[in-house]
Specification:
The complex is a heterodimer of chains A (289) and B (232). Chain A is mainly α and 289 residues long. Chain A has 11 helices and no strands. The longest helix of chain A is centred in the C-terminal third of the chain and has 43 residues. Classes of the chains: A mainly alpha (289), B alpha+beta (232).
């Protein structure tokens, strides 16, 4: 900073580097942390999504039994919690297959062999007890009960509402962005690299100043990300999510809170790194003095 | 004072200046997209006062239970209690149990809630809010599940007596007709000029949800209010 003629370029470069670092940090985070199967799996496990989904199914079939007279146990006995858990995880992995271009469409599938057997058994027993003829209409009623139950189970198992996003065309739009994310990250990394080289060139006559400017970049970019994240976490902003169905609420708010927490931590580390660099610069300057 | 010490305020002020500049630029750049997104954000995260997650499905529904005496009018008259033909009606709020429906002929005694929802139907019979409050002139429409409270509704025959007990009076009806209708057919649940009690439930149907409804229509026998209507 002793050379006043380099002061303005250094400020300009630092200013640009702060934003390019924020951009790089966020795109790298998005690509390698937020938009990954493991992130969704972590949320599914920490939020007990399969338990919440099963509780919703219990409530649904109990409620339906009031109008259909089919006991909830007929359906629930055919639903395995492990299958439900796998379906939740599959919904995520199938969506990522679609986003990354591995598959052309998105579809959630679950094994319903036990459920079909259970419903068939119940209807058959009921028909035998009441001398109901097992004709075409009987089979239609059985099929309708099974397909209605299967549709509801798949609807509830899709806790992240990825089917809805696919049907609305949001996943197709996301697919384009997802494919561009690597390029955007590379461009931002390149810009950051070039700006850093320019900053080094500006600091070549007093290289200890480089640590000061780098420290400022780290500290300010870290604070600009972490402060809003801390505000969101402190005010529990996501708990105002309007969809109150337990499994959807837990999936969406759990994911958003987890990601905000992770970004906040990453930005916090950046800010701390910046502070460390400033301390190094201060100590180095004192020794030199 | 050394050169470095002289430059110390410059280092600090540069940092503060950059911090303020970057904050101002960030706020300025994000302001327009934030304003555009604000409406959607408010819609998606509007339930800020509903911080507690409930898995009972009762979010927002306040169910109120009332103590309602079901002492027959004859016994009350023996205690020299006076009844009135017209009287004060206490309007219920949604989710409030404000009556008890009894039909001795089918051993029925069920709480009646004002309004209808899955949670209320699990607790008793529900009265449509589009019908009149018990005691007012018009059609009182009450329904319940066929496999719980109204399991024996089809056994009510013309001439059977039904009594609605409330906190403000006792209202007696007599079954006049058994009816069957489609769930899309609203003719029995529409508002009427004359007094009528309409009870209905789903037709018991294991082989899929039934679109048929079965019920009874009842005419008014007597209105007995505990307190007279207040003047003015």
């Amino acid at each position: 900073m002793t050379k006043i003629d380099f002061y303005i370029p250094k400020i300009l470069l630092t200013f640009l580097l702060i934003f390019s670092l924020i951009g790089t940090e966020l795109t790298v985070f998005l690509r390698h942390k937020a938009l990954t199967i493991s992130a969704f799996q972590t949320v599914a496990e920490t939020q007990d999504l399969e338990e919440k989904a099963y509780a919703s199914l219990e409530s649904y079939f109990q409620s339906r039994s009031n109008s259909t007279s089919i006991p909830a146990e007929v359906f629930l006995s055919g639903i395995d919690r492990e299958d439900l858990k796998q379906a939740i995880l599959d919904s995520v992995s199938h969506a990522f297959d679609y986003l990354s271009g591995k598959s052309e469409s998105y579809e959630l599938i679950m094994p319903f062999t036990d459920l079909e057997a259970s419903v068939n058994q119940f209807f058959s027993d009921y028909a035998d007890q009441h001398n109901y003829q097992k004709d075409e209409i009987y089979q239609q009623k059985v099929d309708a009960a099974i397909s209605e139950a299967e549709a509801e189970i798949l609807f509830i198992a899709d806790t992240f509402k990825l089917s809805m996003m696919y049907e609305k065309g949001w996943l197709a739009k996301g697919k384009k962005l997802f494919s561009m994310l690597d390029k955007i990250t590379a461009v931002l990394c390149g810009i950051t690299g070039i700006l850093l080289i320019l900053l080094i060139i500006c600091c070549r006559k007093a290289f200890s100043d480089f640590w000061y400017w780098l420290g400022l970049i780290g500290l300010i970019s870290g604070l600009l990300i972490s402060v809003p994240c801390l505000y969101i976490l402190r005010t529990d902003y996501f708990s105002g999510f309007v969809v109150r169905e337990p499994q959807i609420f837990a999936a969406v708010t759990g994911y958003l809170t987890f990601m905000t927490d992770q970004i906040c931590k990453t930005a916090g580390i950046t800010a701390i790194t910046g502070i460390c660099l400033l301390v190094i610069f201060a100590v180095h300057s004192r020794k030199k003095a | 004072m050394s050169e470095k010490k002289k430059q110390f305020p410059v280092y600090v002020l540069t940092g503060v200046f950059l911090m303020l500049l970057c904050t101002a630029v960030s706020v300025g750049v994000l302001m327009i997209p934030y304003e555009k997104a604000q409406t959607y954000l408010n819609l998606v995260f509007m339930a800020k006062n509903m911080k507690v997650i409930s898995s009972t499905g009762l979010d927002g529904l306040v169910i109120k239970e009332n103590e309602i005496a079901t002492t027959p009018a004859a016994e009350i008259k023996d205690q020299e209690q006076q009844f009135y033909d017209t009287g004060e009606i206490i309007r219920p709020v949604f989710g409030e149990q404000y009556a008890v429906l009894q039909a001795d002929d089918i051993d029925l005694s069920v709480p009646v809630y004002w309004g209808s929802s899955a949670e209320l139907l699990d607790r008793g019979a529900c009265q449509a809010t589009s019908s009149v409050v018990i005691g007012e002139t018009g059609n009182i429409v009450i329904d319940a599940h066929v496999n719980t409270f109204f399991a024996n509704l089809n056994q009510l025959a013309p001439g059977n007596i039904l009594v609605l007990y409330t906190t403000y009076g006792i209202f007696t009806y007599q079954v006049t007709e058994q009816v069957q209708f489609q769930n899309t057919d609203k003719k029995y649940v529409l508002p009427l000029e004359e007094d009528r009690l309409t009870l209905y439930t789903c037709e018991a149907q294991v082989f899929g949800t039934s679109s048929n409804r079965i019920g009874v229509l009842c005419s008014l026998v007597s209105k007995q209010f505990y307190h007279p209507a207040q003047e003015g």
